[in-house]
Amino acid sequence: MVLQRSKKRVITKYQNGKLEVVEDEIATEFPITIHVNGEEFATMVCTPTHLDELVIGFLASEGVILFKDDVTNLEIDEGLGFAYVTLKSNAFTNHPDHSKRFIGSCCGKSRQFYLQSDVRTAKTSMSNTKMKVEQCIQLMNTMQENSIMFKNTGGVHNAALCSPTELIVDRTDIGRHNALDKLYGYSMANSIPVRDKVIVFSGRISSEVLIKAAKIGVGIVLSKSAPTDLAIELAEDLNITTIGFIRGQTFNVYSHPERIINS
């Protein structure tokens, strides 16, 4: 079975002062349930592309796995919407309780996490990567130019893993967290070192998005939208440079501007 990331539908459109029947392209919403070592673990709603990367990235983000070799088998039943994951015997038994909310502080700083798994898996960046302002703008432009599905549907988020000079891989999903998990899964599956990498993102930088970036391990996050106050506070604590409102030839640097060079 070949899953479609979008579907054609006949709609009624109002334009130029009149109603007319046209064909439109709609983003697909697909539920997938993950079973880990025979237990139902989570159900996500996603765009049905790169599902193996999504599953691996999600499990890593939740602290269930630390390395790709923790997964001994992964089977995806696209027809029924199930992913069956087999882990090494000790991997799943040691995972934290994901249902408990956790708010903590670190030496009086502002760091706050929602879940215990965030405390365990979010990394303080050790990146020494620096970027020129022109590179920030170019990477955003490149990701947007590649975003064919967004242009066709307007209903997805885009995320890309990049070096300062080039886009390495981009992923699309109806869920912004899913798009980031796909990048995480791709980097793990392909053993890509991420300390010197950059995430380019189409949506708002919420605290959850910032924590996802910290879990992946990058030091710079670029977005065409705005960050929240908590996201900025977390970025300050986790040593992550956050840049928002990259539009045209302007952007705002909200945390750790020392990584950005005006040439």
Automatic annotation (TrEMBL):
Active site (UniProt): C107 (cysteine persulfide intermediate)
Protein purpose: Required for formate dehydrogenase (FDH) activity. Acts as a sulfur carrier protein that transfers sulfur from IscS to the molybdenum cofactor prior to its insertion into FDH.
Subcellular location: Cytoplasm
Keywords linked to the UniProt accession: Cytoplasm, Molybdenum cofactor biosynthesis
Primary site of residence: cytoplasm
Listed Pfam families: FdhD-NarQ
Gene: fdhD
Family statement: Belongs to the FdhD family.
SUPFAM superfamilies found in the cross-reference section: Cytidine deaminase-like
InterPro entries: Cytidine_deaminase-like, FdhD
Protein name in the entry: Sulfur carrier protein FdhD
Family annotation (HAMAP family): FdhD (MF_00187)
